[in-house]
Amino acid sequence: MSTPLLPALPDESFRRVLCIAAHPDDIEYGTSAAVAVWTSKGVQASYLMLTRGEAGMDASPPEATALLRMAEQTAGAAEVGVPRVDFLEYPDGVLEYSIALRRDITSTIRTLRPDVVAVGTWEVEFVAGLNQADHRAAGVAAIDAVRDAGNRWVFTDLADEGLEPWSVRWLLVGGHTRPTHGVDVTGEPLERGIASLEAHARYLAGIPGHPSPRQMIPMITAMQGRAMGVANAVLFRVWDFQAPPPISRGE
């Protein structure tokens, strides 16, 4: 028997999307093409980087690297219609899950009030191989902060600052080994996704043997497209917090 095709993500209700990542460039390895689809429909999208990526270039001192990577990330986001990129200053390469990190992500969620939060997978082994430590910490902290954002009795000081609880409806996890939905990015969204990674030109130039974005992104999205029966796609594992819990459906 053939494997059933994955359904399209029901994004008709999307109004505001917040993408959370450990480093500048993480979102550009596929997810940004999906962001291009959403922003073309009028969805407001924002990015939150938990580090400035300062440990990512061996030949460049950290502070100079941070400034470069922040600028490239801002440019990459603009290619897919994202006007706002916020950067926290947690240390790159040694990002740790912490209450402070959860609080800072919660603060951003309550400030921006997204109905969708997109993160990378926290799995140790994911679709691209062994996952990097910062990515794993970022994913777990982000999913916990999604719950924290809606709980009045967690981080009560945020409410004192005027940041009232906010409940996110959708959680999207990119790179997960068990995706449930996909976004068709064939055509212009794919081109914009490629351009978003190309914006990281100086960073990518320092990675020996890194494929060009025009080679890499079409290859990744074509592989994922087969799971949907389309030319190019980005896949996510999706939770809808307004849906009945799986246990109530006998799953």
Could you explain how this protein is built, in words?
- By secondary structure, the chain is α/β, with parallel strands linked by helices.
- It has one domain (12-249): LmbE-like (Rossmann fold).
- It contains 8 helices and 9 strands.
- The protein has helices at 31-40, 62-79, 99-112, 133-149, 156-160, 188-198, 201-205, 213-225; strands at residues 16-21, 44-51, 84-90, 116-120, 125-126, 129-130, 170-174, 181-184, 233-240.
- The strands form 2 sheets. A 7-stranded mixed β-sheet has the order 3-2-1-4-7-9-8, with helices on both faces. Strands 5-6 form a two-stranded antiparallel sheet.
- Helix 2 (62-79) packs antiparallel against helix 6 (188-198) and helix 3 (99-112) crosses helix 4 (133-149).
- It is globular.
- The mean pLDDT is 96.
Keywords:
251 residues, seven-stranded mixed sheet, 9 strands, two-stranded antiparallel ribbon, alpha/beta, Rossmann fold, globular
Distance between the termini: 22 Å
> What's the domain count?
1
Taking all Cα atoms into account, the compactness measure Rg is: 18 Å
CATH C-level name: Alpha Beta
The global form is: globular
Strand order of the largest sheet: 3-2-1-4-7-9-8
Please state the average pLDDT score.
Answer: 96
CATH fold field value: Rossmann fold
The topology string of helices and strands comes to EHEHEHEEEHHEEHHHE
Low-confidence blocks of residues: none
Largest sheet: 7 strands, mixed
Give the number of helices. Answer: 8
Q: Can you give the helix content as a percent range?
A: 25-40%
Structural class: alpha/beta
Number of strands: 9
Q: What CATH architecture label applies?
A: 3-Layer(aba) Sandwich
Please indicate the percent range of residues in DSSP E strands (runs of 2 or more). Answer: 15-25%
